[in-house]
Specification:
The protein is α/β, with parallel strands linked by helices and 641 residues long. The chain has helices at 33-39, 61-78, 84-87, 99-118, 133-145, 157-184, 212-227, 248-254, 268-284, 307-331, 349-357, 394-404, 430-437, 461-477, 497-503, 517-523, 534-540, 569-579, 583-600, 612-640, and strands at 3-8, 26-29, 45-49, 121-127, 150-153, 202-207, 231-236, 258-261, 296-297, 300-301, 339-341, 365-368, 388-391, 411-413, 445-449, 481-485, 508-510, 526-529, 544-548, 564-566. The protein has a 7-stranded parallel beta sheet, with helices on both faces. A 6-stranded parallel beta sheet has the order 17-16-15-18-19-20, with helices on both faces. A 5-stranded parallel beta sheet has the order 3-2-1-4-5, with helices on both faces.
Length: 641
Amino acid sequence: MDCALVICRSPAGIRALREVRSSLPLVIASDDARVQAAVRSLPLVRDVCFIEQTESFYHAVDEVTRLLGLIDEGLAALAPALPSDVSSWGRNVEGGLTTQRVQDAVLLVRSYVHLLSNQGAAEVHLICDPMHQWEDQVLLACVRARSLPVRLYRSPWLPRAIRAWTERLRPWAVGVYYLGMLARAGSFRLRRPPPSLLLDGAVIFQSNSSLSKHVENIRPLMHALVACGQRAVALCWEASERRVAAPASAVLASQKLEVIRLEDFLTAGDLWSSLTTTARAALRARKPPASWRRLQTGGVDLYPLLKSSFSHFFVAELPQRLRYNRALAAVLPPAHPVGLKLAGGPESFEGKAALRLLATRTDTLVFHYWVGTAPEWPYADGQKKIDFFLAKGPREVALAAHDYALPLAEIAIAGQGRFGRVRSGEGPTPADSRKLLGLPSEARRYVGFDPNGALRGYLSRREQTEMMATVLEFASRHPAVVVVVKPHPSYPIEHLEPMLKTAALPNVRVLHRRAPFAHFLNAVDLAITKYSTLILEAALAGRVAVSALFDGEERFKIYGDLPVVVRSPHELGELLEMIAGDDRAFDHWRDQVLVHQADRLKDFYTSSVEDPAATAAALLVSRLTLKQSLRGAREDMNQNR
C-alpha cells in the first residue's frame, strides 16, 4: 500500500510533524527511540520504522572497492608526479571523511532504497536535520533518482547555516591546526638537521598515535628487544593527532627508550612545497577526472555527495601526507635498519610510505602485529608485503596468512600481554565492586549490558534499541535481578535514555560512562554486548560473555564460539529467562560455559607463563639473526665470484 514516508531524525523535528499534510497514511521513519516513542500514538500514522536497515559493511565491500578504485584513478591523473601511496585513498577503510565516507554512502543508498521500496513510499516528507545534513543530501539524491515527490521541512536558518559553514570550514580548520602543531614542534626551520640518531642496525617502530593502547602496543616489545641486546627506536609523528598531555615520544623517552621525532626533519621549504603541490592538484580537480564522473551506486550520482570529502583531502589530508613523506624520506633511506614495525600495517598510508622508502633494503625484516583482536578484514589486498607476523593465538595465524599472503613458517604465536595482570581470585570481591558502584547488594543475578557505540555497517541504532528493549523487558519481569548498563566511554547513549526513563525500573542501574570498567565486570554474572573486546575481558575475568548478533552477520563472530551467541531479541530474551531461573540450574550452566570459555581462550592467547613481549622479542631476534646470516652468505658468494 502506498504511503507518505516522513523522515524525522531527532526530537527537534517532532514539532514539524504538525505541518505534514497528505491524503496517504503516514509512515514515520526515525533511528531515534525518543522520536519513535513520541509519534506512535499520532493520528493517521500507519507505522513507525527505522531509517537505516541493519546491514553489515561486509555486504558493501565489493562496491566500495570499485568506487575507491575510480577515485584513486582520478587522483593519479591529478597528481601524476606523486607516489601512489601519497595521493591515493587506498583500501584502508577506517574512520575519517575519505574512504569511510565512501562506505557510508554505499550503505546509506542501500538503506534508503530499501526503505522507499519496502514501505511503498509514494511521496516523501523530509524534516531536515542540521546535524545530519549529509545524510539528508544522500536521501534526497535517492528520492530524486526515483522521481518521487518530496517536500522539505527546514529547521530555523541560523542553526542550519552554522552547521553548513562549520562543515565547509572544517577542512581549513584541520589544515591550520596541523600547521600549528608543526609550528609548535619547531618544523619551520630553514635548514634540515642531520639525523640525530643513526638508524643503522636498529629495529624501528613507526608510531603515529599517542593513544595509550597504541603506545602500549610497542613499548613492552621495545623494552624486551633492548634486553636482548637490540637497538629499538621509535619513529614518532604527532603532528596529525589531537594535542595530548603526554605524547608518545615523551612517554617512550621517559621509559629510557630511543625516540626520533619526525617533525624535527621538516623545513619551512617542505611546508611551502606541500601547500603549493596540493594547490595545483586541487585546481586541476575543479574539472573532475573522467573516472569521478562514473562514481555511481544504486542509480545515485555520488560525486556531488563526495565533494566535501575531496575538499577535506586536498585541504587537510594531502598536505600533511606530503610533509610526513618528506620527513620519513629524510630519515629512512639513508639508514640500514635491521627491522621495521609498520604503523597501521601495510595497508595504511604510513606503512606504505615506509615500505616504498625501504624497498631496496631487502635485508630489513618487516614485521607486524595487531592491536586488540582483529576481525576478518575484507579490504586486505592479500598481497605479501611483510616478512614476519606475530600472532596472539591460532585464530590470528589464519587471518594473517589470508590478509598478507604469508606462509605459516613466517607467522609465529607470541601471545598477548594486555591482560597479563588478570589473575583469578586477585583484587576486590564482587561485593566490593558492587558497593563501589552503588549497586544493590542482595540481588539474585547481576546482568551487565554494554550498548557500545552505533557505527554504520558495524552496529546500528536499531540493534542497540532492540537489545535495550529486550533487557528492559526482562528486568521488568524479574525485580530480583539487577541490570547494570555500562556505556562505552567514547559513545553517549542519549537516544536510549527515553526507554530507560519510560521503564523507570529500580533494578536497572546506568553507570557513568567513565565508571571503573574492571569493577563493572567484577560486579556482574554475565556481560552482553555485540563484538566488543568486553567478550575477551569477561572470559578472562571468569564471567559469562554473551554476543548479540542481531544482524545475522557471521563474520562478526570475531571470537568464534567463545561467547554465548544469540541472533535475535527472542533468543536473547530466552537466555535471560533461563539465567533468572533455578539457582542450581544457573550455577551448573555458568560453570559449563566458563569451562568452555577457558578452553576457547587458547585460540586468542597462549597459555604460556612467559612474558609475551619477551617471547616476541626472542622470535624477532631469531628472525633477525637468520636474515643477517643470509645476507652475510650472499656477500661471501659475491666476493668469491
